[in-house]
Model the fold of this input.
Amino acid sequence: MWNKVQETVSYIQAKTNDYKPNFGIILGSGLGGFSEDIQIEFTLDYKDIPNFPIATVEGHKGALLFGTIGNVKVVAMQGRFHYYEGYSMQEITFPVRVMHVLGIQNLIVSNASGGVNSSFKVGDVMLIKDHINMMPEHPLRGTNDNRFGSRFVNMSEPYSRQMLLKAKEIAKELNIKIQEGVYVGLQGPTFETLAEYKMIKAIGGDCVGMSTVPEVIVAKHMNMNCFGVSVITDMGDIENIDEVNHEEVLKAAKKAEPQVRNLIKNLISNY
Done:
């Protein structure tokens, strides 16, 4: 893994004139339009980057974007990788390793999720304060490489409290309505059954999705600061479960996208 990351980083540095971003951003379903907020200087397609997987999900374009938001240098993943696509946990979190070695200390992750908190509604923007990992494989299983991080990782603050506080201040200033809650990560690709939605609620989850958790675990392995935002694109209750499908998820994410973009843009500029 270490050698593969070094090879990928060397390729990226050569293609971007040794560009040194401060923030990494992973754009989830329906949030690819955030690229319009970046003054893009370099675009690298995943298919051209050594050791990179290729995004196969509709709504995930598949490129690394290097540029600035305000005066802050960023790199954005326009499309992420999922365990359900058939990739290993090491493969789907590989870009996070690469970001860290490029010098990034702050990671922002976004996703679309199904809500189970009865006070939520479709289109809500939820700040992730914590997560529950229910995926069948762990991204840190196997031999540990101490050059990345320690064997046992403290997960007492997976999502930066400081960034959460700043995001809440920004949301208040911009009059963006936000929720806050716990994200549960499941394997997918099936949407949850009604019984599974009830289980998620019972164990303390506010929403559920098929991504993000492995990326944050690997980021914390390397002692990065993480901020997560989830768009509630469907509700997992008896009244709404019949409407859950990928097209509706993308539609709801697109509708909430301007608020998420505004929040993330201002968080990066003012953090």
About this structure: The first strand starts at residue 23 and ends at 27.
